[in-house]
Write the C-alpha cells for this entry.
Amino acid sequence: MLSRLNLLTRHFSRQFGSSRPTSPTHSPRVQHPGPSAMTSPHPNFTKPIHTAACLIIGDEVLGGKTIDTNSPFLAKFCFNLGIQLKRVEVIPDDEEDIMEAVHRMSARYDFVVTSGGIGPTHDDITYQSIAKAFNLKLQLHQPAFERMKKLSKPHPMQPNFDWETPSPGLTAKLRMVELPYDPSIPAEQQALFVAEDMWVPIAVVNGNVYILPGVPRLFERLLQHLKPAITPRLSDPEGKGTTRFMISTPLPESAVAPYLTELAAKVEPKGVKVGSYPRWGKKRNTVTLVGADKAFLESLVAEVEENVQGKRVSKEDELDPPSDSEHVYSQ
C-alpha cells in the first residue's frame, strides 16, 4: 500500500510541464528529431490546412471485432470543410507501427487525426507511442485529471472507488490523462478542451497530430467541436468546403468511359475531379463532379447530362424505380 501511495503522490504532484520519460522497450526503427530541434511556437500550429490523414489504431478493427466508422465520419468532416483527406490507414496496437505511421503522416499532411488506443488498459499505447515518435515525454495533465474527477460518473461495478485512495483502478484512469508533452510549446496548445461537458482532451503533438479516442460517439463529438479551432486555417475560412454534383445515368460505365476520360483531363486544371460509380443491381449508375468552385461545376452540368444521357440528382436513388432491386445490369 505504501508503494502505491508513493506512486499516487508522484502522479498528483507532477504538473503538465515537468518531465517523465516514456519507457522504451526497444529501439525504434527510425530516428526522429527531438524537441531541441524545434522552435516555439511550432509552425504546424499555424500552417494552412489543405490535406489530412487518418490513422485508425486498434487490433479489434483489424481482427474484425469492430467496424471502423470514424474514418468515414472524418472523411465527411474534411469534405465539408474543403480539406483533402489523402490517406486512411488501419494499424494494430503496436508501438513501432504507431511511431512509424504517425511520424510519416505528420511530415506529409497538414492535419492528422488518430483514433483509438488511449484507454486505461495495457494495450492502450497510443499516447506513449506517439510521444516516443517525436522524442517527447509523458506528463500528467492536471486540468484533464481535475475534469475527469468532476465529470466522470462512478461505474456501478466499482462502488468503492475513491479518487483519493491509491488503487489499480485509479492508476489505470491516470493513464488516460498522461499526455505527450513538448517543453518548447505552450502547454495550452498541446491539450484542447473543446466541449464543456467532456473531460477528454484532444492532445496535439508536433502541431498537427490530433489524438482522439476510438469510441465513435466521443470521436464524433470531439471532432465536431474542434471545427472552430481549425476553421481559420482552412483555404476557405468561411467553411464553404467542397461541392459534389451527382448525375444519374442509365448507361453502363463502359459506354460513358471515353467521354468521362476527356472531361477529366479538361477540368483537372480547374481542380475538379470526375468520378464514375457503378450501382450493382440498379438500373442507373452515377457520375460525380467534385470541386471547390461551385459556379464552375454548375457550368458543366448540362454538358455532362447530355453526354451521359443523364440527369442531375440530389441523391443516388432519386430516379430508381420501385422494382429496381430486381434487375442486375452489367457494367
In short: Residues 2-39+49-233 form a domain with the Molybdenum Cofactor Biosythetic Enzyme; Chain A fold (CATH 3.40.980.10). DSSP finds ten helices and twelve strands in the chain. Residues 216-230 form the longest helix (15 residues).
